[in-house]
Write a structure and sequence with these properties.
nine-stranded mixed sheet, 9 helices, Dihydrodipicolinate Reductase, domain 2, alpha/beta, 2 domains, single chain
Length: 336
């Protein structure tokens, strides 16, 4: 879905699965260009570039100088995000970074501050907020159709595909584990729909034998300043679980089924005293919509992109979940 804007020239930092499956096509679909891919493994970078028709394959960010780059998409392992973002900001390039934004709040704060100081856009690739169901849920909530909001539920336990069963299950220093991988999405989805982040979390985690030395399942309760309480479930080892997002109020409930995936689709229904009806969903590509919102941010227009600050706040929630599970008590959430 082409948009009216000056095309951006993108470099991919990280020859990742998500870059290949989703981002290359989305960048080109909105009229932008992918000019280079960077990977610490030059052979991997060259294979990725050949597969996707990208002109330049590099093994270091510094090689991007002189290629006319406007923006970078960072999808390296999480512990590398900070240094790569700081480098891009210093070059004056806009940044779209994968979630979690970083592995610590201090690192995320430095990323936000560096991009702000450089006058470049920092976005966090929380793609789920670009699902049609999430956007309609936000509209229904804003309209007051559900009455006073009392509860929410996110069920986001899946089966981690075999081709992704690498560092996410084995490397805690890289930000592995299901909480940093999925709970950040749940935090952003609820914030997008509800307009607020939780202030307190209580959590338990478990290891079902899939991950090594870290959690592969987590259940938690999140309390919001408005009084709403949410339950969240994220997991890596449930191939037959149903996923979804629910919002419940005194006058109605929203039930979203299959709406926390990378692809569009799913089902959204609104149930009230007068009955239940399905709300129609569009089939727009979530990543193309994200890039459209990124362009709005670059132009200084109102947008729905998850900013760097959004990424910081969703990271704060995920880290509080891990702290709560470790300490065995409720933990306050603070991104300050």
């Amino acid at each position: 879905m082409p948009t009216s804007h000056r095309p951006l020239r993108w470099a991919l930092i990280g020859a990742s699965t998500i870059a290949g499956q989703w981002m290359v096509g989305a960048i080109r679909a909105v009229g932008d260009e992918v000019v280079a891919v960077v990977s610490g493994d030059l052979t991997r970078a060259r294979d990725f570039a050949r597969q996707h028709g990208i002109a330049h394959a590099l093994d270091a960010d510094a090689g991007l100088s002189g290629l006319g780059v406007d923006a970078v998409y960072i999808s390296s392992t999480n512990e590398k995000h900070e240094a790569q973002t700081l480098y891009a900001a210093a070059q004056g390039w806009h940044v779209l970074c994968e979630k979690p934004l970083a592995t610590s709040l201090d690192a995320a704060r430095r990323m936000v501050a560096a991009c702000r100081s450089a006058g470049v856009v920092l976005g966090t690739n929380h793609h789920l907020r670009h699902n049609s169901a999430h956007r309609q849920m936000r509209d229904v909530v804003r309209a007051g159709t559900l009455g006073r909001l009392v509860a929410a539920r996110v069920h986001h336990a899946v089966y981690l595909p075999v081709h992704l069963q690498g560092w996410r299950l084995t490397d805690q220093a890289a930000g592995g584990g299901v909480v940093l991988d999925i709970a950040v999405h749940n935090a952003d989805s609820l914030a997008f729909v509800l307009g607020e982040y939780p202030t307190e979390v209580t959590a338990m985690v478990s290891n079902t034998g899939m991950a090594q030395g870290m959690e592969d399942h987590a259940l938690s309760l999140w309390r919001f300043a408005s009084g709403l309480i949410a339950t969240t479930h994220q997991g890596f080892s449930t191939p037959h679980a149903r996923t979804g997002l629910e919002i419940h109020g005194t006058d109605g409930s929203l039930h979203g089924e299959g709406v926390v995936h990378q692809a569009p689709g799913g089902r959204l229904s609104l149930k009230r005293a007068d009955g239940e009806r399905d709300l129609p969903l569009d089939a727009h590509n979530l990543y193309e919509r994200c890039l459209g919102e990124f362009h709005k941010a670059v132009r200084g227009e109102p947008h729905d992109m998850a900013t760097g600050e959004s990424g910081l706040r969703s990271l704060a929630v995920a880290l509080a979940v891990l702290d709560s599970a470790r300490l065995g008590r409720s933990v306050a959430v603070s991104a300050a």
